[in-house]
Amino acid sequence: MAVWTVFEPEEGDAARTTLRWADGFVFVPERVSWSALLLAPLVLLRHRLWLAFIVYVLAQGAVIAAILVLDLEDRAFALLLVANVAVAVGLPGLRRAKLVGKGYEEAGCVVAQKLEAAEQRYFDARLGEVAVARLPLPPVGGARINAAARPAQAVVLGLFPEAAR
């Protein structure tokens, strides 16, 4: 199961009533991006993380320059993978920082296997709260439960010791 952080755009009340209201939400998976291990610059560009891409290119250029200037062995080129691992692990944080900078606010977290299931669970819970909060509950059968009808000494179920011992 994956954890998804939900971000909601800060919009006026008029925009919240439109049919496109749910399209503004962004779900960020809180997991390692396996595709970024090999294709880190492309993943950064796909998510439009321009500043992170520039820092990545400069860091990789500095590592290559250090390898060539210091005349390190060919195995030293494995150091180039360190930046890819950093991008793969830090991608959710980079995406969250970008969304907060663009004016989104964190609306909550959802645990689900896939994006569609996360969206379904989040909107069911969110819209369910609104529907329940606005509608009062009808009385159930009109009968009240009398507190004196309970036994004075209830039996404890489970592995708990009884109070008399």
UniProtKB/TrEMBL annotation:
Membrane-spanning segments: 49-70, 76-94
The protein's name in its UniProt record: Uncharacterized protein DUF2628
Keyword terms of this UniProt record: Membrane, Transmembrane, Transmembrane helix
InterPro entries noted in UniProt: DUF2628 (IPR024399)
Organism: Ancylobacter aquaticus
Cross-referenced Pfam families: DUF2628 (PF10947)
